[in-house]
Write a structure and sequence with these properties.
The chain is of the alpha+beta class. It has helices at 6-22, 56-71, 132-151, 155-176, 192-196, 208-229, 231-245, 249-255, 258-267, 282-287, 291-299, 306-311, 331-337, 341-349, 367-374, 377-385, 398-405, 408-415, 418-423, and strands spanning 26-32, 46-52, 75-81, 84-90, 96-103, 114-119. It has three domains: 6-119, Beta Polymerase, domain 2 (2-Layer Sandwich), CATH 3.30.460.10; 132-245, Four Helix Bundle (Hemerythrin (Met), subunit A); 315-423, Serine Threonine Protein Phosphatase 5, Tetratricopeptide repeat, CATH 1.25.40.20.
């Protein structure tokens, strides 16, 4: 059987309207959808609505039999909205026929797309448009679901949730520009600059990396639209949306993926200000992974805490020398790890203990042990000059570590008698 044509559709609609006018159980009938406002095209379906007196069930059942017996419907489904029942039929020609039924007292226009054909209708009661707060709210709700699906490594669920999130970003944009909001009906009429940002919100595949990229882009678009429509709401939401979008920044860092980290921070610079569940900053986590990642994070110009300054080549406004990081290191340990000689000198001048042992289970070392680990011989020399003992802690001493790593220059330095170092 061939696909329906516009004339086929017109003939069928005319016959349905004629039947409805003869049905004494109907107090009125209307054309709805695009045809009611003169915007029907080749692919438009048939949309008719009827007000029913008395019980609706036998009327709907009768019309259903008619669609199957006379027009060879192959299937139907019901969509309800308040008192309205929309019975949607699929015909072999691929034509969709929507017949809406509602009690007579509720038969009225609910939208501008309502053209009374016969009988009478109650006064119009158009459904209100969604508000910016509602659409932005559903947007951030789906953002939470996208994040959790990604973190749980459920890519297909994440893909579904990401699509729903983008749907509401589109609705928000349509609302702002006075276009139809439901079912993306106005999306293709949006300005070019709005549409230009949308392709990046589409995941090109179902890999977690690609989903993360598209998610960041969608969060950015959500906030751009919210900011344009309601700046005060955007101001409240932005920090939280940034944190949601940035959740996976630490996974990227743990993978050591410099390109992905750079792409994320360019799309969402605020992600550089995120903190992991322990309270470690993006910069600190990057420093534990590689210098290349540190450089990328610093390019995003994140706000620097006193601890972060150790990894940003700063030597002022540092943590108290007696403080401990959340992962069990002193500022001196971390200054050494960052190869920040000026910061190490400043901390030593401020009274930092060069022989204190880190509390971290995986690195029970002194600052001198850290210097051996990172190969910072100039800082090792500074620590020795301030009384660092290369023989502690017992069993994991800096000297033993230098010998294990076969660092001849470090072995020579740590093996020098203290008096010799003083004379140098």
């Amino acid at each position: 059987m061939k696909i329906f044509t516009a004339p086929d559709r017109d003939v069928l609609r005319t016959s349905l309207i004629a039947r409805a006018k003869e049905d004494k159980r109907l107090i009125g009938g209307a054309m709805t959808g695009s045809a009611s406002v003169g915007k029907e095209d080749r692919w438009s379906d048939i949309d008719l609505a009827f007000g029913v007196t008395g019980a609706m069930e036998p009327v709907v059942a009768d019309w259903t039999r008619h669609m199957y017996d006379e027009h060879e419907a192959v299937a139907h489904l019901d969509v309800t909205s308040g008192p309205w029942l929309y019975r949607v039929f699929l015909l072999p020609t691929t034509l969709q026929v929507d017949l809406a039924f509602v009690p007579a007292a509720e038969f009225r226009a609910r939208a501008p797309t309502f053209k009374l054909l016969f009988g009478e209708a109650a006064p119009p009661d158009h459904r209100p448009l969604p508000t910016v707060a509602e659409l932005a709210g559903i947007g951030w709700l789906y953002a939470l679901h996208v994040r959790s699906a990604i973190e749980r490594q459920r890519p297909w669920q994440a893909l579904h949730m990401l699509g729903r999130m983008r749907d509401h970003v589109l609705e928000l944009a349509c609302l702002r520009h006075g276009l139809p909001t439901s079912h993306a009906r106005g999306a293709d009429q949006l300005p070019a600059d709005v549409l230009a940002a949308l392709p990046d919100t589409i995941a090109r595949d179902a890999t977690l990396i690609e989903l993360q990229r598209a998610f960041v882009a969608t969060c950015g678009t959500l906030m751009s639209e919210t900011r344009a429509a309601d700046p005060s709401l955007a101001e409240r939401l932005a920090p939280v949306i940034d944190r949601i979008a940035a959740t996976h920044v630490f996974e990227i860092i743990d993978r050591g993926d410099a390109a992905e980290l750079q792409a994320l921070l360019r799309a969402l610079p605020a992600a550089a200000a995120a903190r992991d569940p322990r309270g470690l900053s993006v910069l600190m986590r990057a420093a534990y992974r590689s210098d290349a990642l540190v450089k990328i994070v610093l390019e995003a110009e994140p706000p620097l805490s006193a601890w972060d300054r150790l990894f940003a080549a700063k030597s002022d406004q540092l943590p108290d020398p007696a403080a401990w990081s959340v992962d069990g290191f002193t500022p001196l340990h971390l200054a050494v790890f960052a190869r920040n000689l000026d910061a190490a000198r400043a901390l030593l001048r401020a009274g930092a203990d060069p022989n204190i042992v880190a509390r971290a289970d995986f690195a029970r070392v002194t600052p001198l042990g850290t210097a051996v680990f990172v190969g910072a011989i100039d800082i090792a020399r500074e620590l020795l000059d301030h009384g660092a003992d290369p023989s502690i802690p017992e069993g994991a001493s800096p000297l033993a570590a230098a010998r294990a790593s076969k660092r001849d220059d470090m072995i020579a330095l740590l093996s020098e008698p203290r008096d010799t170092r003083r004379e140098r």
